[in-house]
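wait is this the right file?? whatever heres the structure
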């Protein structure tokens, strides 16, 4: 699970949301492991209040928090691999990160040979749970959402770019090149080897 925020000061709010999710699934959050970042200073009272152990690494000793650091580095590499070849602007890094995490949670882990989603939700994934996976930033043709923009003999579908998946909704997050905004689509047709932004060679397009 990944949370993206504009400011580190908002970390506590996101942690509280994450804690509630953990407690719903596993009854109790036992410990929080972090570095000595200033954004975690405000966590102390909240952790004590809920009986959560506060584990911190020594300053400038990233190896003590090696699993998190390694995951962060892997995530950055995947995001870079999604953005650069597709030609999508770097401002979409959060969308790429969410997409990378979504796919990773449905892949078998190298260490324990388990699928994170199956462990987290305590159920075995079926074939249909993988059929919706698409290539990030590829071409997408989806129905025009706003019926007021439909002309009697005009097109019923429009060209978009797929960005990822919406949490809690059975739909795709797609980017409209003309309206310059993210739209939720129920379904569509996707060209896994076609990247509109890369074809135009214009990274300022988005």
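ok assuming it is, sequence goes like this
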């Amino acid at each position: 699970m990944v949370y993206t925020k504009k400011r580190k000061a908002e970390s506590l709010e996101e942690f509280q949301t994450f804690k509630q999710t953990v407690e719903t699934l596993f009854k109790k959050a036992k410990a929080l492991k972090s570095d000595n970042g200033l954004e975690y200073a405000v966590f102390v009272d909240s952790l004590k209040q809920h009986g959560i152990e506060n584990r911190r690494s020594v300053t400038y000793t990233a190896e003590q928090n090696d699993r998190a650091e390694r995951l962060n580095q892997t995530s950055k590499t995947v995001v870079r691999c999604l953005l650069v070849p597709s030609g999508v602007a770097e401002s979409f890094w959060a969308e790429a990160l969410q997409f990378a995490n979504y796919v990773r949670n449905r892949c078998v882990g190298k260490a324990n040979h388990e699928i994170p989603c199956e462990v987290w939700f305590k159920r075995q994934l079926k074939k249909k749970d993988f059929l919706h996976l698409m290539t990030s930033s590829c071409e997408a043709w989806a129905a025009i959402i706003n019926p007021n923009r439909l002309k009697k003999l005009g097109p019923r579908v429009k060209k978009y770019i797929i960005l990822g998946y919406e949490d809690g909704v059975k739909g795709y997050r797609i980017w409209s090149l003309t309206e310059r905004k993210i739209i939720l689509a129920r379904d569509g047709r996707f060209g896994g080897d076609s990247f509109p932004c890369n074809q135009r060679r214009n990274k300022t397009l988005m």
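The radius of gyration is 20 Å. so i think its the right one actually
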